[in-house]
Amino acid sequence: MTDKHTPGPWKVDGESVREVDTDDVIAQPGDNFSAVNPSQTLVANAKLIAAAPALLEALEDAKRVIGNLIASIEQHHATGNCYDSDIWALANREYRALDEARDAIKLAKGDA
């Protein structure tokens, strides 16, 4: 995807999401299905949308850290110093977490 999202940070302004520096509207989430209190739902949606740039950045950082940790475990194993099955169980969880992070980043960037 060649399109890029508006860089963060974003802020919530009532039921809208705005870019902090320019005050441009990023999104105005609509919710026609909330019979209880549409305003609370709209504000909650706006808060989630406003957090998107920070969430994406945190996920990209987590992907990098997990990737580095996996590489370290693999290097340790390659030297013949790794026999603990618990370490490999951890590595397997990290592989899954890394795959999930990659998939979420692709989805956020429109590459999924």
Structure description:
The chain is mostly helical. Helix 1 crosses helix 2 (85-109). The chain has two helices and three strands, in the order βββαα. It has one domain. The protein starts with 9 loop residues before the first strand and ends with a helix. It has a three-stranded antiparallel sheet, covered by helices on one side.
Q: Describe the biggest sheet?
A: 3 strands, antiparallel
Assign the structural class, choosing from mainly alpha, mainly beta, alpha/beta, alpha+beta, or little secondary structure.
Answer: mainly alpha
- Compressed to H and E, one letter per element, the order equals EEEHH
Look at the structure and give the mean pLDDT: 76
User: How is the largest sheet built, in terms of strand order?
Assistant: 1-2-3
Q: Uncertain segments of ≥5 residues (pLDDT<50)?
A: none
Distance between the termini: 9 Å
Query: How much helix is in the residues?
Result: 55-70%
Which features would summarize this protein structure in a list?
single chain, 112 residues, mainly alpha, three-stranded antiparallel sheet, 3 strands, 59% helix
Entry summary:
The protein has 112 residues and is mostly helical. Helices cover 59% and strands 10% of the residues. It has one domain.
Per-chain topology:
Blueprint (H helix, E strand, L loop, with lengths): L9 E4 L2 E4 L5 E3 L10 H41 L6 H25 L3
Helix pairs in contact: 1-2
